[in-house]
Amino acid sequence: MGPSALLAGGAFQKFSGTQNNMRPQTSEPISNARLDWLAEFQLADGRKLFFRHVSPDDEPLIASAISTASRQTLLHRFFSPIRKVPPEMLRRMLALDRSHEVCIVGLVEGSEPKLVCGARYVRIEEAEAAEIALTVHDDFQRLGLGEFLLRLLMRMGREDGIRIFEAYVMNSNVGMLKLFEKVAPGHSRRHYEGDVSRVVIELGSKVS
Ligand SMILES: CC(C)(COP(=O)(O)OP(=O)(O)OC[C@H]1O[C@@H](n2cnc3c(N)ncnc32)[C@H](O)[C@@H]1OP(=O)(O)O)[C@@H](O)C(=O)NCCC(=O)NCCS
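A: This is the predicted complex of the input protein with coenzyme A.
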C-alpha cells in the first residue's frame, strides 16, 4: 500500500468558491483561525465552510472528527475501522514538510470551530506524482464537499508541478469511485491488492 495520504504546498493562490466554482480571491485572512486560508464554500443551507492548511494545533479537532465518524467512513479512509489515532501518530501526521506534503482542512464557521473534512497529497518517488486521500465527515457527506475538495486538490497539485495523482480505494467505496468518475472521467483504475484498486488521474487531462 502506498503512503497513507497526505499533502504539500508552498504559497498557493487563494480561491473562494461555491459548490463547483473556485475563483482567485484576494482578501486577507481575518483571524488566526484563518491562517493559511485557501478557499471557502457555502452549503445549500447557507452555512459557510473555510479551507486552510492544517496546523499542529488542529490535533484535538481531528481527534474529535475521527471519534465521531462512522465505521464505514473510517474503514474507507484508513482501510481499518480505527476509532482513535494515537496522539503521537497524529502529531507526526500534522508535522508536515510542505515541500513534500499538503494537507488542507475544512471548518464550519461558528463560535466553536468544527473540522468537517480534509484532503491531502504526498509526493511519491516518481517525479511529479503524488498520492491523495480525502475525507468528509458523515454529517457533511453528499453536500458537495468531496467534489469541491478533489477539484481544489487537483488545482493545487497542478500549481505545485504535480502531473499525476494516485489514490488507493476500496472496491466497496462506491462514493469515492463515483466522485472520481464525475470529476476526473479520464482516470484509470486497476486492481492493486485484496479489495483495493489503484486510481490514477493525469492532472493534465481535462477536469469536467
Ligand atoms: C467519498 C467521499 C469523500 C465523498 O464526499 P462527499 O462530500 O459525500 O461527496 P459529494 O457530495 O461532493 O459528491 C460528489 C459526487 O460524488 C459521487 N458520490 C459521492 N458519494 C456518493 C455515494 N455515497 N453514492 C454514490 N455516489 C456518491 C456522486 O457522483 C456525487 O455527485 P452528485 O451529488 O451529483 O450525485 C466521502 O463519502 C468520504 O469521506 N468517505 C469516507 C472516506 C473515503 O472514502 N475517502 C476516500 C479515500 S481515497
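The helical segments are 59-68, 71-78, 87-94, 145-159, 174-183. The first strand starts at residue 15 and ends at 18.
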